[in-house]
Amino acid sequence: MNSTKIHIMLRTIRIKNIYPLLFIGVTHLGCSSSYRYQMETGDTSVQSSSKKEGEHSVPQRGTNTQLDEKIKKFLDKEDFEKGSPVTNEELDLVINKLGRTVDMFNMSSIDKEYKAFLNKYGSIDGGGFEIYGPTVHTGDNEKRIQYISSIQRGFENRCRTSKMKAAQIKSCWLIAGIDQGDEYYINLSGKKKENIYSISPDGKSKLFAKDFLEFLDKFFESYERKFEEETYQGEVYQEEGSDSD
């Protein structure tokens, strides 16, 4: 191989090697200038735009929305009507009227969804199913307080007949009931204060729901089962009556 060809080959190799070096240098200068601009101006939009691209905020469903949806299922039935809203101040007066101390019964420990229900709806009642509270016919502030107090005192008496301990009775709060069936209450003396318990007509208690929203689902299911049973029994009665004719 002559010297001219060798010279051309070496020159070609040097040219090929310099392009990657030039590319690295230009890239480095670009990054440095971008970083320097961000440091001087405080503008990080260039850096964060690629990170934010494709991100979407997921709307969160508020628990009050869930509460309203669950109550609407009851109120959509012809049987049910809502009651008279109760304020937190009225609830505090009821607790004082019942002679309960903060150690026995602390309103701040009550499930916030249940309090939201009382504040907005007061009660719902229909078809032998009732979430207790003042009705639209209860009257003014004093009558609402008296009405709620009477409900809770009646439940206290029932708990005594079931041989529940006095300290535990003062920690319980009746929230609902089924005509000639179970009643439902919260017990703030327990570790999980949102839990809701059922008490049968013979005085036996058991866990019914982990919180008020779950309680509403199960309470509505109980209503629908009873409604279907009564509808079926009515149809059977009509068929038997028509056969006898």
| DSSP strand tally | 7
Specify the biggest β-sheet. Answer: 7 strands, antiparallel
CATH superfamily placement of the largest domain: SMI1/KNR4-like
How many helical stretches? 8
CATH topology of the largest domain: SMI1/KNR4-like
Structure notes:
It is a single chain. The protein has 245 residues and is an alpha+beta fold. The protein folds into 2 domains: 47 residues; 171 residues, SMI1/KNR4-like. The protein has a 7-stranded antiparallel β-sheet, with helices on both faces. Helix 3 runs parallel beside helix 8 and helix 4 packs across helix 6. It is globular, with a radius of gyration of 35 Å.
Describe what is shown at a glance.
By secondary structure, the chain is an alpha+beta fold. The protein is 56% helix and 12% strand.
Describe the structure using short key phrases:
245 residues, alpha+beta, SMI1/KNR4-like, seven-stranded antiparallel beta sheet, globular, 56% helix, single chain
Show the helix and strand layout.
Blueprint: H1 3-41, H2 45-52, H3 63-75, E1 81-82, H4 88-97, H5 112-120, E2 124-126, E3 129-131, H6 141-161, H7 166-169, E4 172-178, E5 183-187, E6 196-199, E7 205-209, H8 212-244
Antiparallel strand pairs: 1-2, 2-3, 3-4, 4-5, 5-6, 6-7
Helix pairs in contact: 3-8, 4-6
